Amino acid sequence: MGHEDCIFCKIVSGDIPSAKVYEDDYVYAFLDISQVTKGHTLIIPKTHTKNIYETPVDTASEFFARVPKVANAIKATYNPIGMNLLNNNEKPADQSVFHLHIHLIPRYGDSDGFSTNWKTHTEEYTNEDLQKIAKEINSSI
Ligand code: AMP
Ligand code: ZN
Predict the structure, then answer these.
(1) 118-132, pLDDT tens digit by residue?
(2) pTM score, two decimals?
(3) What CATH number does the domain containing 101 carry?
């Protein structure tokens, strides 16, 4: 079912054109127009869901199960030296289209268009701190 005013639902239905990479009953994969690196692909569930928080288990199962297939196709085609998968949830975390999607970003080198800013804080946490945090999160599951 298409979700009113969702551009990705419109891409699935064909109302907005896209460069389709793959499609089956559950997912649709297409090139991201920004092409951060060559072959930068988005994979989305056909069923509209806003982001990871609102995704039912069944939708998640069908969706995530197909990600390796598309990742391997990009790898086989362009032989990247690596690949980053990225999923943004909510505006402050850079989600701009509110239909769940994963970016598949093949990597070709240090200045290929994508980079991560990954600051480690290992020295600021004791093992006790980590156990406490893990327990706190676990209690919400
Ligand atoms: P995000 O910021 O994670 O929500 O990513 C949304 C992505 O969708 C951006 O990287 C956009 O370049 C991409 N995008 C937006 N509109 C289109 C479109 N019509 N076709 C392909 N990609 C799109
Ligand atoms: Zn949608």
Answers:
(1) 999 999 999 999 999
(2) 0.96
(3) 3.30.428.10
